[in-house]
Write a structure and sequence with these properties.
The chain contains 13 helices and 20 strands. The chain is α/β, with parallel strands linked by helices. Bound molecules: D-mannonic acid (CS2) and magnesium ion (MG).
Length: 409
């Protein structure tokens, strides 16, 4: 069997997605996700102009060799665009192998290590009442773990608060990247944020009790000592994790955070290779791997970093926002089901238009996700529907301090 064609499909039902469709000479197809939020066309071009021409004639079963061929063979390694392109090919090949074997991908990865995948949902509010209402909504939907994001007095707009309107007028919770010609500029004030967030978790614990797993995303905005301070102030509220507390290009920066707090740390949704984790894992500086299959080189690479993390009892907490497409999301559910060191899975629900383009087998029951038992990854794309949603330029916001300094969004 040979790969006979490689197509790149760009569609925009509510948000932009880049999907690779591989077809074999026996007519078996496989899908892969290469969506890089706000830079979608770069990934599509890398795939279309540089990777797709290399695939026809290759044996679809040679997943590892193809991974190495695209990683080492590119000479220029790593980075979000390269690794998203490799991820799309990798996912599509696992999808094909599953369909040929008549098995869901998790069976090829060693079978299920659990019945379902504990998920966390996104609750947020620009008031305490709004936040409590959002948490109740998620509990009623069956979520058993909740990420809490809140607006902060004195900050006009910030990451993760669904109720605040975007420039496009659409509610934030469907998509952080605003459609438009330029990124929206938001403001930021670390001191106001560190003062406010612990008071929110105190109120949430009083209202919802001590057992409900609560998560929070600091979204890369704090220096190491600020992250240490926030982690310490949140200890009484026993968080499941504090996420991306400080930019982690400098991995040893987490030593200072670790030194001062026992709040569990999750990092790495912007990471692209296992090298980004090497020191964080070997020095036990994190507790959860936040990488997503789409941005990390696919199922093959995600499986490898989890095997490495297992040696240090570090668990998975895969990134699952709406800018990971239903294909990329399902792909990492298969990894999550098979690995032993599973932790939790983020689930930011896709919009109805997105679900009309991507037909999925995934289920969320009683707070647990499952990829389904269809052969392969379990997602198909309706190309006609996809053609009805042409690409639209969209950018993630940027944020600036009061004095105009550009800050991490
Ligand atoms: C966030 C993401 O879900 C998360 O944890 O950090 O929503 C992130 O902002 C987007 O994926 C950026 O594209
Ligand atoms: Mg995050």
């Amino acid at each position: 069997m040979k790969i006979s064609s490689a197509e790149v499909i760009v569609t925009s039902p509510t948000r932009n997605f880049v999907t690779l469709k591989l077809t074999t000479d026996a007519g078996v197809t496989g899908l892969g996700d290469a969506t890089v939020n706000g830079r979608e066309l770069a990934a599509a071009a890398y795939l279309r102009d540089h990777v797709a021409p290399l695939l026809p004639g290759r044996d679809p079963h040679q997943i590892e060799d193809t991974w190495q061929y695209l990683y080492r063979g590119a000479y220029w390694r790593r980075g979000p665009i390269t690794m998203a392109a490799i991820a799309a090919v990798d996912m599509a090949l696992w999808d094909i192998k599953g369909k040929i074997a008549g098995l869901p991908v998790y069976q090829l990865l060693g079978g299920a290590s659990r019945n379902g995948l504990l998920a966390y949902g996104h609750a947020s509010g620009n008031s305490q009442a709004g936040l409590f209402e959002s948490i109740h909504e998620h509990l009623e939907k069956g979520y058993r773990a909740i990420r809490v994001q809140t607006s902060v007095p004195g900050i006009r707009a910030l990451y993760g608060v669904a109720a605040q309107p975007q420039a496009s007028g659409e509610r934030y919770d469907y998509e952080p990247a605003g459609r438009g010609v330029l990124p929206v500029e938001e403001d930021w004030d670390t001191a106001a944020y560190i003062r406010h967030v612990p008071t929110v978790f105190e109120a949430v614990r009083q209202e919802f009790g001590d057992e409900l797993p609560l998560l929070h995303d600091a979204h890369h905005r704090l220096t190491p000592i600020e992250a240490a301070k926030l982690g310490k102030r949140l200890e009484p509220y026993d968080l499941f994790w504090l996420e991306d507390c400080t930019p982690a290009e400098n991995q040893q920066a987490l030593r200072l955070v670790r030194q001062h707090t026992t709040t569990p740390l999750a990092i790495g949704e912007v990471f692209n290779t296992v090298w980004d984790y090497q020191q964080l894992i070997t020095e036990q500086l994190i507790d959860y791997v936040r990488a997503a299959a789409t941005h990390f080189g696919g199922i093959t690479a995600l499986r490898k970093v989890m095997d490495f993390a297992a040696l240090y009892q570090i668990r998975s907490g895969f990134h699952g926002p709406t800018d990971v497409s239903p294909v990329g999301f399902a792909a990492q559910l298969h990894v999550g089901l098979a690995i032993h060191n599973y932790g939790i899975q983020e689930y930011m629900e896709h919009s109805e238009p997105t679900n009309s383009v991507f037909r999925q087998n995934m289920t969320l029951k009683d707070g647990y996700l499952h990829p389904g038992d269809a052969p392969g990854i379990g997602v198909e794309i309706d190309e006609q529907a996809a053609a009805g949603f042409p690409y639209q330029s969209a950018y993630l916001p940027v944020s600036r301090l009061r004095d105009g300094t550009l800050h991490d969004w």
